[in-house]
Amino acid sequence: MRTTSFKSSLGPMSALLFVFSLVVLIFISRFILLHALVGIGIGILAAPLIERISTRYHLPRAISGILLFTFFFLFFGTLITLLGTILSEQCLVLLQKYPQIAERVSVQVDGFCKDFPVLRDYIDKFNPARYFSFSLESALTYAQSGFLAVTNFALDVLIGVYTGIHAKTYFESLVRSFPQKNRSEAASILQESAQVMRRWFKGQLLDMLAIGLITALGLWLIGVPYWAIYGLLTALLGIIPYVGMLIVVAMATIITMSSNPELVPGVIGIFIITQMLEGYVILPLIMKGQSDLPEVPLIIFILLMGAWFGLLGFFVAPAAFAVLRVLYMRLYIPRVDARLS
Asked: Is the pLDDT assigned to residue 291 strictly greater than 60?
């Protein structure tokens, strides 16, 4: 009897052990999986363009894919070269002036504490120079590991090229992996997920370019130093709802206050104008007819992805959340409604 009971419990134990081992393996190899998913995502985004080029000019998909990615490399390479000179100069000046900026910030905080002594204990715990130094060191670390980042991105693009060229084959193979009765639903969900990802990427890219250019132009017009850096950070961190913009505003305000305090109202005003234009003009035009992602779950998911996967996780999170939302709406909600009814 004990032998029978042991054998009956061996199945669930083996399944539990398998699941646990799988979770551990996924966690250990999470960065490899993330880069693979990024590459697949690039391929999904590029597949319709490759198909269009191939059909219009009667070219093989392989040649169409190579031409497409060559064009994008040349375009973004030229753009980075043009902007890189301005950004590198401003970054160099900012690094050189960092000790003076940190010292001035500390002096201003001490003066603020004299006016509000009740806040002394709280402000002492927040050392602006220490936190600014930490941020600067982190930025330098990322800059020093630039070769590794470029290498990883090149591998992502390589995966994207093959995925985009053979997208139809991979799609059909993936659909055939499902049972016959579920293939139609699986194909529909996969197509909807790809469309959602493409719409999100297109809208987000246009939004990032718009707010980055508007912010940089506005700050340049009022004479704010490091306007190109703030414009770039606004474009990149704008992908994180609310939190990203707050980080850029705080950084720009603190640095400007330490060197050009008379420009602080202008800096804050430019960011307010940028957010109003984004909220009332840019996003309604770009995202017209598309469903917005819920803010609170999205922010939580972004923070989790950032904690698990680092800087790349922050940028991948919104697209992954959009796809997971499709799966949630198409798979989970209908089954819950069916059970309740």
From this structure: no
